[in-house]
Please model this.
Amino acid sequence: MKNKVTKSIQPIEKFNYEIIGSSKIITDCKNNALRIAKSDAPVLITGESGTGKELFANFIFKESKRNKKPFIQINCASLPESMIEAELFGHVKGAFTDAVSDRKGKFIAADTGTIFLDEICELPVQTQSRLLRVIERSLVDKLGSDTPYEIDVRIISATNKNIKEEIKKGNFREDLYYRLNVLSLHIPPLREHKTDIPELVKYFIENSRENRILDNDAINKLHLYYWPGNVRELKNYLKRLFITSKRQIIGENSIDIEINEENNFLPLKKAINKFKKKYIIDILSANNWNQSKTSDVLGIQRTYLSRLIKELEISEAPNGSLASSNSEAPIGSEATE
Ligand SMILES: Nc1ncnc2c1ncn2[C@@H]1O[C@H](COP(=O)(O)OP(=O)(O)OP(=O)(O)O)[C@@H](O)[C@H]1O
Ligand SMILES: [Mg+2]
Model:
């Protein structure tokens, strides 16, 4: 059985685990990951989608003393609820209708090694209870068997959800969270370490074996974008760019990322005005577009509100009442803001 388990070790490809970035954020993450790798305690990796959680999970495994042992990866979102327990914990022949033969299950396959439970928040609550028992006792009960199997498995889990919110909503067991989150590693979004963009671009170009260069203006343009899909989005964007642009040296004109107010950082003044506009519209609308009531709520003079409405180009009044009041001469002072 041990031989079979060893076979399930995933091949380590050179580039798979290379974590690119020399920003303080990525350097700190790598150092934390190295510290975490030296321990056997469960680790929970958090971060938005595409930030590199899976990459870091692989890195932790590779740097751990278990790196010659099995590394079993399972995406908790990829299996139907009915199959997940059999997949994780195994079953004996005849345990249920489709159980035509014995199945070892991922935990037993990972024995002496590491299991990576990706997208852990997608685990059904019932399976969470079972997982908790497995962790607490270091014993796995295959479905249909009453002989527990002792295991020694290091658990790495990851989620891009706000797990504390999931606990509050009753979707995730708090006691399991504490068991999984003995050590934690948070991977920040790309927008917080944009200084790594040039290195990442170089790395992705080298990996794609494209003989291309992005000039400085093109790189600068990439810095303006918000990158909601993080490093994965950058990687995929470059793939598309190399298909759509045939130039060897790619300039800013070829960077067609739409840099609009929704996906980009704004200068502070613009951001404040954007907030002011939305806030005033919300209050106007809550007060049936009555400016006197709205200015009371905002704690400003009505004349000042009137001026703000004009300046911020607020004209959404459904019944036209606002439009008429806009014509008032904006008198009054820079009242309290
Ligand atoms: N620092 C980095 N250096 C090199 N490649 C990176 C880096 N961060 C992420 N990547 C690459 O970006 C892609 C997405 O990373 P990964 O799959 O690890 O993200 P994730 O956080 O697990 O995302 P999700 O939550 O959507 O599963 C992968 O191809 C990965 O190799
Ligand atoms: Mg992932």
Remarks:
- The first strand starts at residue 43 and ends at 46.
- The chain has three domains: 2-188, 191-254, 268-326.
- The radius of gyration is 27 Å.
- The domain at 191-254 is CATH 1.10.8.60 (Helicase, Ruva Protein; domain 3).
